Each structure stands twice: as C-alpha cells, then as structure tokens.
C-alpha cells in the first residue's frame, strides 16, 4: 500500500490485485486447434452478425480466421475483408497453417492483399491510395484481404455499399466505431446492416468508448449475436501468469524523476510517455525518452540490426530499449518496428527489454513477455487504459506476475491547475474501478427464493430456501446471488443486458464526472441514493430509452448490485487483512469477499442502494494521498454543489411517488433519514419549478 512519508515523494497504490487459478483452460486446444474462446465463437459461426467480446490475448484474431474460413468454404461468401485500426495490427492476421492443428483449411493472405504491409506511413493520403488495390481485390478470385479502418472507409465512399455484397467484413478493435453520426465507420456499418447483404464480425476487448458514446445504435446492436469471454475466465485459464496488479502512482514535480522509482529494469516494460500537449509533458518528447534511458543506466550505442538502444544497467546486464517515440529517422523507426514484429523473435524473451512509446504499442500490439505497462498521465479514455493493460496480460512461459501502473500528478496547494489535476485523478480511479469490474466474475442476480441455478455449486449445505444463498459456477466463476426486492427484467433485450452488458452500464456510470466527484470527494454531502438511484437511473434511461420503465429499473438495480457487491467484497477482504483474520487465498479471494458480504445480512435492493459505490476506492485514496491535498480537493468539489436542478427534482418526485405507493404517505422533509428528506426536497423543488413555469405562461398570456 501507500507510504506518504516516502522520501521519493511518490508511492504506489495497488487498487486492484488478483491471483489466478492457472487451470490452463485458456490455452488448451480442442481437436481442431481451437482454444476455449475460439471454440465458443466458432459455435456461432453461422450468424450473419456476430459480436465477439473477449479480452486481449484470448485469441480473437485466430477465432476470426476459423469463422471466416467456414463462411468462405461452407456458407457461400465470396471474400473476407479484415479491417484493423492501424497497420501494426495487420500482422495479427498473417498466414496461419491451421490444418496442422486439425482444421480443414489454412489461413492465407496473399502478400499484395495485406495492405497493412504496403509501403508508406499511416496517413490519409496513403490510406486513399490503397482503395485502388482493394477495388482490384474485389474483382479478383482471391479470398482474403487485410486493410486499415481508414482504407475501408475511403473504399466504401468511393466504391459504394453494393461493392461489398456477399462478403464478410470483420472489424477488429470494434470500440473505434460509434453510433454518433460524425463517426464515419459507424455510419457506414449502419448502412451495411440496413442493406443486409454482408456478414459482419465485430471483435473487441473493451465494448465501450472513452467518450461515452454508444458503439452501436440499439436497433443495430439487437441484430448481433454476442459471444462473451470474460477476463476472469481468460486469466484463470492461463498456464503461467499467477497474478495481476493494477494501481496508480502519485508524484509531484517532474514525472521523469518519479519514473525511475517505479520502472524496474528487471521487468519487461512498455512505457507510454504523455502527449506533448498533456499537463505532465516536459514539452520535449525526445528529452523525456533520453532521461528515462539515463535512469536505466549508461548508454552504449545502437544495435545496427534492430535499431534498439543498448543500455548498461547497474546490475551489469545490457538492456535493449526500443524507442518508438523518435520519428526523426524513418529508416531507423521502420527497422525498430520490424525487429519488434519479427515472427522469428515472438518467443524470444531476450529480444527486447523496454519499449518506450507515445501513440504506439497499445491495442493489438502483441509482446507476450511484457510484465509491466507503465503509463504517464491519464491518456485519453478508459478504453485506451484497458487496451494498454492488455499489453501486460499475455501468458508466457516463466512469466508469473504482471502489473499496470498509471503515473498521476498529485494536486498540490500551490498548483494553479487543480481542476485539471483532479480530472486526471478521477479518470485514473475510474479506470481502476472499471478494471476491477471487468476482472470480476459475472453475476447472476435473482429475487429471493427463486431456486438454485443449474451448474452452480452452493457449498456443503447446498441451496437453502430462505437462507443466505450464494452459488458459484466453478467452470466460469459466475456467481449467483439472491436479492430481496430485485426487479426482474421483462423483455428479452433487458434480460440480455442484465446477463451480458452490465459492465457497459457500469462504464457509463464511471465516466460520469459528477458521479465520481460526489461519490469520492463529497461523501459527507452526498447521499448514496443520489448516485445509485438518481444518477444510475438517468444513465440507464438515456442509454436504453426504448425499454419500459420496469426494464430500465431492473437494469439499474442489476448494475448497482454488480458494482456494490464487488466493492463491498473488496472492503471485507481489506478489513479481514487489517485485523489479521484474512484467510482468502489465490483466485478464491474475491469469491470469499463476496461471501463475507452476502452472509452478513439478508441482502435486499434497498440496502444495496444505500451503499456508496466508491467507499472502497476512497479507503485506498485516503491512504495514498497527502491529507492536505485530499482536503483541498474535497473543498473544491463541495464548493461546486448547486441547488436541485429541474431534471433531478423531477426524478426525485418520481421516486417520491414510488415511496408513497409502498408506504402510503409522501416523504417527510423533516425525516431523520437523509434519502427520504432529499426526496421531499425534490418534490418541493419540482413544485417550485412548475409554479414558475405556470407563472411565466400566464404572464405571457396576459401580455399577449
């Protein structure tokens, strides 16, 4: 944990720490050479629209190969076009001799049709120039092509939708798509779906965006069959990796001084320095790279074959450092990239030791040996953070521990840009909380006494009617919890969301700046229900406006339950460790924490709604931050609180109506219960808004 007296003026906060079961299931192949996730996806190969939600390193690229080959050979499709966000990811779809594992066909892409390998840089001009090649491919008898998102966008514009009829379009890193009309790729995919003459396979390790926009419009998303393979399943099924730590690291003054405190030269590391316009940047990216390398040891030259810097470390080793920041010499940069992507070096742990990057080496970058992803400053979105973490979660022989560290500037009393610093802190904490949810097993929530679920283990005593009932699916890690008063989703779509998409709902919650500010730094003046009922309720209604009020409330309750039970499990484990009674070990730790919380009392949804979802995060933050800085942030957030806005007053009035229906009376503004008092204040505020509007209307009439 933290140590505020640390003389380095920087300290680590391990917000998320998990141990894996190492069952080997993730890497175990069936008779056709398919791993667990690939087999699950291949079972849905006949679907016209398929969405694969699966973490980095789970084998999405190869899953697509299996599916595409079946569509080409058995389903009558003419060609498969694989679309990736940047050229470096194109190597993930290089030739694979799948028949040697037992599959019927090999995956092959003719050199001229892997447009990601064509000469040139990633810019608009080059992307446009490749449209001609894509057009030639469409007219050929060849079956597979790989190109970038940009090339595909230009091709659809120039060649028209009909040019792609009867073909498979596979979109890698699908979170780049947005339902916003300004997102060109999203608009084009919507048009292709409306035309309904292509097959689409969408693949992503993070089915959400950093800007809170929906990836797909609800009507389009409903047409996709979803294959979900969770982080929990993936990590527990590894053979080598034992544990993953995720944390933020606060510093003051220059970040290059703090980097040396967290960058362990013994670990294979990717360092992402801040954008030159970021607050953390020294405004000289090459100087920053040089100072990081100076912290590693003495520079001894450049390897002419790879372009890697050679650094003599203090322990006597020679470190090989790849600089992906310096773009002043295109030839050397290409040499470095080529050395990193060389298939012959993929399993060579000694090929490179440290990679320093700015905009590269994130999504789709495959370096299995990476043990530490170190990011300076908050990047641009939760999506990007999740993708960067994925660089360190590959399984590799002898690699037992992995970590992600986000280096964040701590607000100080004499700092003028406190608001910006607070925003970065909030985003870092948000990313940490999101990963905590992503890494947790999925929940299945049901109302009290609805009976056991098939495939779930309820312990030695089994399922007990009326007792504290919690079951675990030992294959998937999924947890069944019964909750009194839980609303059951009515429609198939709401049922699907409660089973498949709760993390996406929680993501929207965690991207709400007001939620984070109030929940973390204005706890004394913020009732939990303002977050769990009002803010989450608003988020669900805006995200799923087409659903009924009952379905919206069911989704809200399920999402809050998933988040709060995970957070309370974390608190229960921390408290047990603090008093010396902690016994949870390895991959069962979270399950034991959930069991501690669930068994404390009979769970009901009102209890869950009365818990601040950020209690556990605040406990970590309070230990990590300087007390004076924490008070300063709390004061600045509390000062921003305003009177009840009209939309909040309306929702409070709606909650008050439900309160009256349950209890036969309206909430009392003098109640000792804070939530009841707030509902009453909301009713009064809404009445004032209505009176003001009526007066304005009457005034307009009288003056007319």
Quaternary state reads single chain
Q: How do the strands of the widest beta sheet line up side by side?
A: 1-8-15-14-9-13-12-11-10
Q: What is the terminal separation in angstroms?
A: 68 Å
Number of helices: 24
* Portion in beta strands: 5-15%
Helix content: 40-55%
Q: What about the largest sheet?
A: 9 strands, mixed
* Tally of individual domains: 4
Radius of gyration: 27 Å
Class based on secondary structure composition and strand pairing:
alpha/beta
Low-pLDDT residue intervals, each spanning 5 or more residues: 1-11, 583-587
Shape: globular
Mean pLDDT: 83
Number-wise, the strands total 18
Name the features:
9-stranded mixed sheet, 704 residues, 24 helices, Rossmann fold, 6-stranded parallel sheet, alpha/beta, 4 domains, disordered N terminus
Topology:
Layout: E1 10-19, H1 36-42, E2 49-53, H2 60-74, E3 79-84, H3 124-129, H4 131-139, E4 144-148, H5 149-159, E5 167-171, H6 184-195, E6 199-204, H7 218-221, E7 225-228, H8 231-236, E8 243-251, H9 255-262, E9 269-272, H10 285-296, E10 297-302, E11 309-313, E12 318-323, H11 330-341, E13 354-357, E14 372-376, H12 382-390, E15 401-409, H13 418-439, E16 443-447, E17 470-472, E18 479-483, H14 492-500, H15 502-510, H16 513-521, H17 528-543, H18 549-578, H19 589-600, H20 605-609, H21 615-624, H22 627-638, H23 646-663, H24 674-703
Parallel strand pairs: 2-6, 2-7, 3-4, 3-5, 5-6, 8-15, 9-13, 9-14, 12-13, 14-15, 16-18
Antiparallel strand pairs: 1-8, 10-11, 11-12, 17-18
């Amino acid at each position: 944990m933290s140590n505020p007296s640390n003389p380095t003026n920087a300290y680590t906060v391990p917000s998320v720490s998990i141990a894996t079961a190492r069952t080997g299931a993730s890497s175990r192949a069936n008779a056709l050479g398919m791993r667990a996730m690939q087999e699950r996806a291949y079972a849905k190969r006949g679907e016209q629209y398929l969405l694969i939600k699966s973490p980095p390193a789970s084998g999405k690229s190869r899953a697509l190969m299996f599916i595409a080959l079946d569509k080409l050979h058995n389903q009558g499709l003419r060609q498969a076009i694989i679309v990736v966000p940047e050229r470096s990811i194109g190597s993930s779809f290089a030739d694979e001799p799948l028949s040697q594992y037992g599959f019927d066909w090999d995956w092959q892409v003719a050199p001229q049709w892997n447009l990601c390998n064509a000469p040139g840089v990633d810019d608009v001009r080059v992307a446009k120039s490749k449209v001609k090649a894509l057009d030639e491919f469409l007219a050929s008898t060849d079956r597979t092509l790989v190109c970038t998102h940009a090339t595909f966008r230009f091709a659809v514009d120039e060649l028209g939708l009909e040019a792609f009829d009867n073909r498979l379009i596979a979109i890698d890193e699908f979170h780049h798509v947005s339902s916003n009309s300004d997102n060109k790729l999203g608009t084009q995919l919507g048009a292709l779906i409306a035309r309904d003459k292509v097959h689409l396979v969408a693949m992503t390790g993070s089915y959400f965006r950093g800007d809170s926009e929906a990836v797909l419009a609800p009507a389009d998303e409903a047409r996709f069959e979803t294959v979900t393979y969770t982080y929990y399943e993936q990590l527990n099924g590894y053979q080598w990796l034992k544990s993953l730590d995720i944390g933020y690291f606060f510093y003051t003054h220059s970040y290059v001084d703090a980097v040396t405190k967290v960058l362990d030269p013994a670990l294979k590391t990717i360092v992402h320095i801040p954008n030159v316009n970021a607050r953390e940047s020294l405004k000289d990216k090459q100087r920053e790279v040089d100072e990081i390398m100076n912290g590693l040891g003495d520079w001894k030259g450049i390897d002419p074959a790879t372009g890697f810097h050679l650094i003599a470390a203090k322990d006597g080793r020679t470190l090989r450092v790849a600089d992906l920041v310096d773009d002043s010499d295109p030839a050397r940069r290409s040499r470095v990239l080529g050395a990193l992507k060389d298939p012959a070096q993929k399993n060579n742990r000694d090929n490179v030791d440290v990679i320093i990057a700015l905009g590269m080496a994130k999504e789709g970058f495959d370096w299995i040996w990476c043990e530490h992803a170190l990011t300076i400053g908050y990047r641009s979105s939760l999506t990007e953070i999740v993708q960067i973490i994925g660089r360190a979660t590959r399984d590799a022989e002898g690699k037992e521990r992995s970590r992600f560290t986000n280096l964040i500037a701590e607000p100080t009393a004499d700092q003028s840009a406190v608001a910006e610093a607070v925003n970065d802190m909030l985003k870092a904490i948000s990313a940490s909380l999101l990963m905590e949810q992503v890494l947790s097993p999925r929940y299945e929530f049901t109302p009290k006494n609805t009976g056991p679920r098939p495939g779930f283990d309820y312990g030695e005593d089994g399922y007990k009617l009326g007792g504290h009932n919690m079951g675990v699916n030992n294959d998937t890690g999924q947890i069944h919890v019964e909750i009194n008063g839980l609303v059951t989703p009515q429609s198939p779509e709401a049922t699907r969301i409660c089973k498949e998409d709760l993390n996406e709902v929680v993501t929207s919650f965690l991207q709400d700046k007001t939620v984070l500010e109030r929940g973390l730094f204005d706890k004394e003046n913020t009732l939990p229900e303002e977050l769990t009922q009002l803010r989450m309720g608003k988020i669900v209604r805006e995200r799923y406006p087409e659903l009924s009020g009952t379905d919206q409330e069911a989704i809200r309750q399920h999402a809050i339950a998933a988040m709060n039970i995970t957070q309370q499990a974390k608190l229960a484990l921390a408290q047990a460790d603090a008093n010396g009674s902690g016994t949870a070990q390895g991959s069962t730790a979270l399950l034991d924490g959930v069991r501690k919380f669930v068994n404390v009392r009979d769970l009901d949804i009102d209890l869950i709604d009365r818990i601040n979802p950020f209690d556990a995060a605040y406990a970590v933050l309070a230990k990590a931050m300087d007390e004076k800085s924490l008070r300063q942030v709390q004061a600045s957030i509390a000062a921003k609180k305003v009177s009840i806005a009209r939309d909040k007053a309306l929702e409070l009035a709606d909650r008050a109506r439900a309160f009256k229906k349950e209890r036969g009376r309206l909430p009392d503004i003098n109640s000792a219960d804070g939530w009841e008092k707030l509902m009453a204040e909301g009713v009064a505020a809404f009445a004032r808004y209505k009176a003001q509007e009526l007066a304005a209307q009457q005034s307009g009439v009288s003056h007319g």
